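A sample copied in:

***
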Amino acid sequence: MNPFPCHVPVRGEELCDREDALEAVLGAAREGRPLAVASLPGAGVSSVAREASARLAAQGLEPIPVSLVTVADGADLEARLAAALGAAPGRPPARRLVVDDADRLVGAGEDREIREVIARASGGSGPLLFGHDGPALLGLLDGADGDALLEIGPLPFAAWLPYALERFLETDVWVSNDQVEGAHRLVGGHPRHLQDLFHEIWNLAGGRGGRVEDAMLAEALERVLGRRAREWRAVWDGLTGNQRRFLGGVARAGTEPHPFSSASLERSGLTSASSAQRAASALEGRGLLGRTDAGALRLTDPLFGRWLASEP
């Protein structure tokens, strides 16, 4: 059996480098504090939400997990929460509301209305909201400040290396440290891509008793890109023309330290800085673009950037 889960949130021992995040979530739950947990799409926020719910249950804190794959409005949210509460009665102080995909609450109704619904369902203890837009989630927590936001980032190589090597060793597949490092670098430490990429590498090595060859890294990457192409095409098709031009320009450049300069506009095919600013703002709001430590714009998903750079 392939030791690298693919296409699903991971739990327990399959989680890599998330103990600090889990301790922060459990600490907030024990103290009844509200907390918003955010990550880039695919960086493991749903995995943390599920593992946190399991650990809360083991500690007798009565988690009430709610996943909002879709939500129409505040009334729809209230109905879903009521159903979850009905399935998990218990005294209000013992409840710990755990809402995954909480980004879908943003824009589902008036913020004040949504906050009131969450507060009622939380029964006096702080809710735990998981999603991808940290500032928006904070806005749904009454009286919360910046300390109520926990952001989860990429997996550092120092954490991924022993995790990956242990799984190769357990299945008697030979792999070098350099190969693990090269694969990690290809996806920038993005957790979902790491699981997908190493899933394919293990398969290409022939499974148990196999051996990883250098050429397999590129082949595994092509498989992952091909599998995700349909999803990325849907994202691309949902963008406006200017957003596509700007995003494509950033993908081709790698990073944009001066995104509204004449050189950047020429690269993107946009005619004005104001058009570029509007496109950049919308793309940042959707989590497709982020900022480096130096303030330059970059794609948040390195493989999406590779796909864009290779598309006509």
